[in-house]
Design a protein that fits this description.
With 428 residues, the chain is α+β, with helices and mostly antiparallel strands. Helix content is 39%, strand content 19%.
Length: 428
């Protein structure tokens, strides 16, 4: 391609690999019966539509629509409805990303279903197609690939690949092609723009990405801050957002869930909070990090005007950084005792660990009497068992057994890849 040579001479080239209708595609991997049939995935507590197959989109099912409002539509069209299965989606995401890593030198995992790839060594649609083919063969997940000089343009290219290209691959290899594409690309679909900003832009007669790109930079800065300028420059081919291959350490980790049904009893809240706290501790150990603050929050149902509203939070500062499950759970339960009120009914609870530092940078206190070496060994053994046998196979007694406060997941599919009991059985 002549345009490809011109474009590559400019140096930087980035590809965006995006899984198609990811949650819905995950449900199809181990259930071929629903291939080419409408599929939707529901949000927490089986509330709203958060993922749709192409067949479901054609039925007019909208993103974010409450499932109960379109119950008749779902039943009439035999739509396959699933609760969110985060264990399955997370595992398949790792498999997709690990497959892509075998084909590129550098990768930035942007989200559970997206990754930016370094194509600077060689940018070609055929290369993207081979990656797409390999991912589908190894994981069963379809992906689309967009290629361009910047992340913002790669996002646009990916949109075109997904929507208009049968092979699911598209590359911006010339300035003329970029201009033609941006001229018909809605400004609200640009990465980083969104509905609110696009509404303001349209008030000034800016409807397309090309119009946005050609607007005076000073005017954009004055009306839409420096972020608008950055997007504009990226559309012009200037790299503002380079590939971030080193994942930055999280500032805090939060685990929270809305309950399947409202909770009043302190005993159940203790199970909830201890489970969330243990999850935070596990995530810290996975990242080889420790925390210096632990906070717990509760929330009543803001949509129920008949109940007393209460949104407390309590934070503890630690003398010694920790990722020990028992210690974090202990502090979380102390925080819960401080904020719990028996005259309230709760809809949500959460635990946040903050001031996160590398595990290797922890400094012990002279007044610390905890045998941390022993605790570290115990946590390591528990983590190993749970990784091999499934989440929470070994857990703290305070986390409870019944867990009737959990999310409503009436349409949950098997985990397949993360739980031995859910593994597919093949009859020969």
């Amino acid at each position: 391609m002549g345009g490809s040579n011109f474009y590559n001479s400019q140096g930087n080239m980035i590809a965006l690999a995006d899984c198609n209708n990811f949650y819905a595609s995950c449900e199809r991997v181990f259930n071929p019966k629903i291939k080419n049939k409408p599929v939707v995935v529901l949000s927490n507590n089986d509330g709203c539509i958060i993922a749709r197959s192409n067949e479901a989109k054609k039925l007019g099912i909208k993103m974010g629509e409450p499932a109960f409002k379109i119950k008749n539509l779902l039943e009439k069209n035999n739509v396959n409805v699933y609760s969110t299965n985060f264990a399955l989606y997370g595992d398949l995401s790792k498999r997709v990303m690990n497959t892509i890593k075998t084909e590129v030198n550098q990768i930035e995992v942007y989200s559970i279903d997206e990754a930016f790839l370094d194509f600077s060594d060689f940018a070609d649609e055929e290369r993207a197609f081979l990656i797409k083919k390999k991912v589908y063969k190894w994981t069963g997940i379809p992906v689309s690939v967009g290629i361009a000089k910047t992340k913002t343009l790669a996002k646009v290219a990916n949109h075109i690949a997904k929507k208009y290209k049968k092979e699911g691959v598209f590359m911006f290899d010339s300035e003329d092609l970029i201009r033609r594409a941006l001229n018909v690309f809605p400004v609200e679909d640009l990465w980083g723009i969104g509905r609110k900003i696009s509404k303001r832009l349209k008030q000034f007669g800016i409807y397309t990405a090309l119009q946005f790109r050609e607007t005076d930079e000073k005017w954009i800065k004055r009306n839409f801050s420096i972020n608008g300028v950055k997007i504009q420059r990226e559309l012009k081919g200037e790299v503002i957002y380079p590939l971030e291959t080193l994942r930055s350490r999280k500032k805090n980790i939060c685990t929270s869930r809305s309950f399947g049904k409202e909770v009043k009893e302190l005993s159940k809240l203790r199970e909830v909070v201890s489970s969330h706290a243990n999850s935070c501790a596990t995530k810290l150990r996975d990242e080889k990090s420790c925390c210096l603050t632990i906070s717990v929050f509760l929330s009543t149902n803001p949509f129920n005007s008949k109940v007393k509203q209460y949104y407390p939070c309590r934070l503890f500062n630690l003398d010694v950084p920790t990722n020990d499950s028992i210690e974090i759970v202990s502090y979380a339960l102390k925080a819960l005792e401080h904020i719990y009120r028996s005259d309230c009914t709760y809809k949500k609870a959460g635990v946040i660990v903050g001031r996160i530092i590398p595990e290797s940078h922890t400094q012990l206190s002279l007044f610390d009497n905890l045998d941390r070496d022993k605790r570290r060994e115990i946590n390591s053994i528990v983590d190993t068992i749970n990784r091999k046998m499934g989440k929470d196979k070994v857990k703290l007694a305070v986390q409870g057994k019944a867990r009737d406060w959990k999310l409503r997941q009436e349409r949950l599919s098997p985990c397949y890849t993360t739980r031995f009991a859910d593994m597919l059985q093949v009859r020969v």
